[in-house]
Amino acid sequence: MAAGVTDRLEAYSSEERKERRNMTREIKKCECGLVWKLVKVKTPYGIRDSDSLQCSCGRELISWNGRHTWTAEVVNKGEKNSR
User: Is the pTM of this model over 0.85?
Assistant: First the structure.
């Protein structure tokens, strides 16, 4: 790991560090213009989950079938939805 990443992780407790390592973040823009922050989190005890998340326009943002789940949050309404 790079020194900057290690330094930032040391600012957290051991439990917080473990939780942050188990998360993946990505930004996804829907065709309707909404921009979403998606966060992937491992499920406890290796429990499998199969589901999907949809944009408020009804389009699928992401689907999964594994030992993780995703959450979504709108970060920018985009040009089409800025009114």
Answer: no
